[in-house]
Design goal:
- By secondary structure, the protein is of the alpha/beta class.
- It contains 16 helices and eleven strands.
- The protein has one domain (about 10-70, about 75-495): Amidase signature (AS) enzymes (Alpha-Beta Complex), CATH 3.90.1300.
- The protein has helices spanning about 10-15, 25-40, 50-65, 115-120, 165-170, 185-190, 225-235, 260-270, 305-320, 340-350, 360, 365-375, 380-400, 425-435, 440-445, 480-495; strands spanning about 45, 80-85, 125-130, 175-180, 195-200, 220-225, 290, 325-330, 405-410, 450-460, 470-475.
């Protein structure tokens, strides 16, 4: 049998369900992988081997001693290893929030909802994946801990804020991992690490729906090495009622589909043709796809698409055209009002961080202090005006995207950034650098649209990156268009396979 980390998550799931592997065997393999690579990669802020082993044993006991297959395991991800983002609470495990300010705090007594959902699916948590301070930056280089690095070049960052999760998946320390995305925090690190990252439609997932965050920005979603593995984790993040319906009557704002539909779309790479909000399809069976390198930050910051990003985009477009899809150039409507309004909203969200003690505030990093203090100076009227502006932008962008079955952009405008590239002292410059690196993501959080990033190209090898650096595309869907995105991403994956093996 291949080394377990070389298996896809779908394969591991099937082997566990068939009784050919036990949760303890899988847990031990991935814990060993974490122990070997985490000192270099910085993917885990906290590793909990004792709790992981106890959980694996408990899952095995829950199955009973009957013959393999006679007592099916409980939970769609029974025995599968993953990690909790270090912004989420797990009962009994410290949460660091990527910050020196929270070091030494006692563990939470209750797990967050997303942790409970995945526990119910049967996962084994190996620990907390690294995150930047409070999840605000688009890079994961906390001052109080080692940075998360892309395994393709250890001199470069893994992106953020789900940088540890993406790095762990790319290095084979986890088969997949959940993340959260408020401005690109799943898609950015997935792109920097050469894996797949899916930001769902706002309201699709009950845990991390976006409905309860300011401006509806933050949603949870999957990060995985393959499109099918991402779909498998997405399925588990959609808890079902006994009758099969999705258990989220409050949060649902877009269509959801029967259990297994997302995984089937990824595995068969077939575009839906009849459901509202998904690809209508052309007479020849293809989709109408818009392609753009314009973004909502154009004109406010100097946004340049690098040759490497363009190469990744061109590779993806050639592959999609090869499947018979119609590719049309798209220039997004100019939106000079977007950038000031988004900055106001982002700072407004930071103002609610529950820290008032000056000494604790002083332990935060300059960027975080700037966001919090600037946000607390924003008048209520200005925040309300910003939200009204962004609501109008949402309507505009949804209409522009919905004219197509999907819209494609570069995943990132630049190659994965070197560790230390972001200015540590000037928060204004730091914020600008983040937007220049990833101008195509935050507008989709504002609009609540689903999007998936897929690697499509590797740069020329160097001494630091022997296999090259990953570059990719972002595929944007209509509201509720996850089936279309998964099918198109699977087509890209089939046409443009990633380098064999692992970078480390």
């Amino acid at each position: 049998m291949d080394a377990l980390h070389e298996r896809t998550a779908v394969e591991l799931r099937d082997l566990l369900a068939a009784g050919e592997l036990t949760p303890a065997e899988v847990t031990e393999h991935f814990l060993a992988r974490v122990a070997l690579l985490n000192p270099e990669v910085g993917a885990f802020a906290t590793v909990t081997p004792g709790l992981a082993r106890e959980r694996a044993k408990a899952l095995q006991r829950s199955r009973g001693d009957g013959p393999a297959g006679t007592q099916p395991p409980s939970g769609s991800l029974w025995g599968m290893p993953t990690g909790d983002k270090d912004l989420w609470n797990r009962a009994g495990v410290p949460t660091g929030f990527g910050s020196r300010a929270f070091a030494g705090l006692p563990p939470a007594e209750e797990s967050d909802e997303i942790v409970q959902v995945l526990d119910a699916a049967g996962i084994v948590s190996l620990g907390k994946t690294t995150a930047p301070e409070l999840g605000f930056p688009a890079y994961t280089e906390p001052l109080g801990a080692p940075p998360a690095r892309t395994p393709w070049d250890l001199t470069r960052g893994a992106g953020g804020s789900s940088g540890g999760a993406a790095a762990a998946v790319a290095a084979g320390m986890l088969p997949f991992a959940p993340g959260s995305d408020g401005g690109g925090s799943i898609r950015i690190p997935a792109a920097a690490c050469g894996v797949v990252g899916l930001k769902p439609t706002r309201g699709l997932l009950p845990a991390g729906s976006g409905i309860d965050s300011l401006g509806g920005l933050v949603v949870n979603g999957p990060i995985a090495r393959t499109v099918a593995d991402a779909a498998l984790l997405l399925e588990a993040m959609l808890p079902r009622r006994a009758g099969g319906g999705v258990a989220h009557p409050y949060t649902l704002r877009a269509p959801s589909y029967a259990a297994g539909a997302y995984l089937a779309a990824a595995q068969h790479a077939t575009l839906p043709t009849s459901n509202a909000g998904t690809a209508a399809g052309l007479s020849g069976g293809g989709a109408r796809i818009g392609v753009t390198t314009s973004s909502a930050w154009d004109g406010f910051y100097d946004i340049t698409v690098s040759p490497e990003a363009r190469a990744g985009l061109d590779a993806g477009l050639r592959a999609l055209a090869g499947f018979g899809h119609e590719i049309d150039e798209l220039v997004l409507d100019e939106a000079p009002e977007y950038a000031p309004a988004f900055r106001t909203l982002w700072m407004g969200g930071a103002s609610a961080v529950p820290i008032d003690d000056p000494e604790t505030l002083g332990k935060l990093e300059p960027l975080t202090q700037w966001l919090i203090r600037s946000g607390r100076e924003v008048p209520a009227r200005r925040l309300a005006e910003a939200m009204r502006t962004l609501t109008a932008y949402e309507r505009s962008l949804v209409a522009q995207v919905s004219a197509y079955d999907a819209v494609v952009t570069p995943a990132l405008a630049l190659t994965p950034r070197p560790i230390g590239w972001y200015d540590a002292e000037d928060p204004e410059l730091n914020f600008e650098q983040q937007c220049q690196y990833t101008p195509f993501t935050s507008m989709l959080n504002v609009a609540g649209l689903p999007a998936i990033t897929v690697p499509t190209h590797w740069t020329e090898p160097t001494a630091e990156a022997p296999a090259g650096l990953p570059m990719g595309v972002q595929v944007i869907g209509r509201p509720g268009g996850e089936l279309t995105l998964l099918a198109l991403a699977a087509q890209l994956e089939a046409a443009l396979p990633r380098p064999s093996g692992f970078p480390l």
